Amino acid sequence: MSKHDTIMTNLASRHEVLLPLLEGNPIHYLDIPFYGNVGDLLIMQGTLSFLQKYRLLVTRLGMYFNYSPTWANKGDVVLFQGGGNFGDIYGPFQGFRERVIAALPNNRIVILPQSMHFSDPDKFKDCCKLLSRHPDLHICVRDTESEEMARQMTPHVYLLPDMAHQLWPIQHTSASVDKLLNLRRRDSEARMPINNLGDTFDWEDLVGKNWAFFLSQIAERSIYHAHRLGLNKPLANLEARLWIDQAERFANQAVSLFSRYECVESDRLHAHILSCLLSIPNRISDNSYGKNKRYITNWTVDSPLVTLAESSNKNS
């Protein structure tokens, strides 16, 4: 086994620490990513793989806009999707998480591995105050900086790698025919100014022009309004399952794309993780607030396939 293989196998095994928190209880898996960020779709795939592997009982699936905490019964465990939306960049997701936690003080809450970032100190303090009231809140984080923040919210903190590592290993779907895939963020986390990105690729180029993705945007609005009218509970799981099937197709398209290249350069964390899952050499620069560097330093820096690029651009 190569050094890279050993690192990746070890990362996938680390999530077993979660089993005592989840086994034997009905699980509500929430914050399912109903959008086209392939990184979050890979996290979801890895989470579902983990839940299936250990035969954990998932009774409810929910997105941030179609779930009510009144649906949770005594003994149900609320399991939140991991990723990088814990903080004040992505308000609707953080707001949903805080509302559910506040509404369910008697249910165990488990937040899968997250990178935390608050640009507003007051919002961080408010979050700490709210979450610290919950007696059975368990927060998993992807780096030591997030670990320090989470310990101000709960004593139950776990330093763990991203759930997408549950997909290890992913087999190439084709032979490499191109040299370099240059995948760059075009959103608020981009470190390099968007107008200077040049000839680059991002997840939206893979997903955003897809007819199925366009239909999902229409479906989101319909589901949201049905939920507000109290009509959605019987259909919520079906809605999530239909989206999960489509999301898997989007993730498979990303695997097919990456398989064509000999190496990857990116400032997206899951371009790095997907490259590692496919054993493709990758050179990764940071996002706007240091998430990528924090993650690689904690988990994958020793892989011979990984290079952490030091950016001279100081924009944040």
What are the SSEs and their pairings?
Blueprint (H helix, E strand, L loop, with lengths): L2 H11 L5 H4 L4 E4 L7 H16 L4 E5 L14 E4 L2 E5 L3 H13 L5 E9 L3 H11 L5 E5 L2 H7 L6 E3 L18 E6 L19 H5 L3 H18 L7 H24 L1 E6 L2 H9 L4 E3 L6 H9 L6 E3 L8
Parallel strand pairs: 1-2, 1-3, 3-5, 4-5, 5-6, 6-7, 8-9, 9-10, 10-11
Summarize this entry quickly:
The protein is α/β, with parallel strands linked by helices and 316 residues long.
List key phrases describing it:
alpha/beta, 316 residues, 11 strands, Rossmann fold, four-stranded parallel sheet, disordered C terminus, globular, 17% strand, seven-stranded parallel sheet, 2 domains
What does this entry look like structurally?
Strands 1, 2, 3, 4, 5, 6 and 7 form a seven-stranded parallel β-sheet that branches. A four-stranded parallel β-sheet has the order 8-9-10-11, covered by helices on one side. The chain has eleven helices and eleven strands. It has two domains: 3-166, Rossmann fold; 167-308, no CATH class. It has 316 residues and is of the alpha/beta class. The chain is globular, with a radius of gyration of 19 Å. The protein has helices spanning 3-13, 19-22, 38-53, 91-103, 121-131, 144-150, 203-207, 211-228, 236-259, 269-277, 291-299, and strands at 27-30, 58-62, 77-80, 83-87, 109-117, 137-141, 157-159, 178-183, 261-266, 282-284, 306-308. Mean pLDDT is 90; it is low at 312-316. Helix 11 (291-299) links the parallel strand 10 and strand 11 (306-308).
